[in-house]
Write a structure and sequence with these properties.
By secondary structure, this protein is α/β, with parallel strands linked by helices. Helices cover 36% and strands 20% of the residues.
């Protein structure tokens, strides 16, 4: 008997944009369901091992490829407004919430973590808790002032111009095979547009401003040696949360993709234990 059931879906965002999505069901009745959002220049197909860990624990998982990512249509790495990414994830949430039982979690990695945090500031009904993996609250490097100025100009003159996101795949994980696999992945476009970059920066600022409004249980996780999304960003976000129902986990020495890191078993254990506790509340 298979330990999970896998299916591919077609969802639609609020503006009608079609989205490719995946669903992994556990073999038996699900104890809870999770909607998870991936990071930039990646896709839901990189999370099959996460799905297996969740399925083995009796949890179902749904992931949609964001517009312009993976198998979803759209110009690679491009949006006009950050709310478009949020709407993509909300489409996945709506599908996830069609399942029983009524316990549902929202999670996100990197860019997906920023999206999940942005949605969490709205305290959406039907979400019982939110977990974040190396959320992109703060870049691990400071963009040169001239690049920011140029992005503002290009966002008006040529908003969809594809430029490199400057992510070094060697900084994803201390496991070299992770970066090598990402380098070979045909869906790793490595692009960002001026419009997307400015929307991203504005979203970082807005989420930090709105963080005190979050009432949902939060698990904030980050690699202590993350050079892509600075750990300090998650620490600042966590400090702004007013709710007592919050947990911060910093993993010493880990890089950006903590679910793909050496010692990832501890990360899986922490997030599964946290969801189990929140589900009992």
């Amino acid at each position: 008997m298979p330990d999970h059931h896998y299916s591919e879906l077609r969802l639609h965002s609020a503006d009608g944009t079609p989205l490719f999505a995946r669903e992994w069901r556990p073999a038996g009745p699900a104890k809870a369901w999770v909607t998870l959002s991936h990071g930039t220049s990646e896709h839901s197909g990189r999370y099959a091992h996460v799905a297996k860990a969740f399925n083995d624990a009796g949890l179902g998982l749904v992931m949609a490829d964001l517009r312009g990512s993976g198998q979803s249509p759209g110009k690679r790495g491009h949006i006009e407004r950050f709310s478009q990414y949020c709407d993509d994830v909300k489409a996945a949430i709506r599908h996830t919430q069609s399942h029983q039982p009524a316990v549902h979690f929202l999670g996100g990695h990197s860019l997906g973590g920023l999206i999940a945090a942005s949605i969490a500031t709205e305290n959406p009904e039907g979400i019982d808790g939110v977990f974040l993996s190396c959320a992109a609250f703060q870049l691990g490097f400071a963009p040169a002032p001239w690049k920011l100025a140029l992005s503002r100009v290009l966002a008006t003159l040529w908003p969809s111009l594809p430029i490199s996101n400057e992510i070094d795949v060697a900084q994803l994980s201390r496991d070299a095979s992770v970066g090598e696999s990402q380098q070979r992945d045909p869906y790793n476009h490595g692009k960002v547009t001026p419009s997307m970059f400015l929307a991203f920066i504005q979203a970082q600022q807005q989420v930090m401003q709105d963080a005190p409004n979050i009432e949902l249980p939060m698990l904030v996780m980050h690699g202590g040696a993350d050079a892509i999304s600075a750990c300090e960003g998650s620490e600042r976000f966590f400090a702004k949360l007013r709710s007592d129902n919050k947990v911060l986990k910093i993993y010493d020495g880990m890089y950006h993709e903590i679910f793909n890191e050496l010692g990832k078993e501890q990360v899986f254990s922490d997030v599964l234990d946290w969801m189990a506790k929140v589900g009992e509340q």
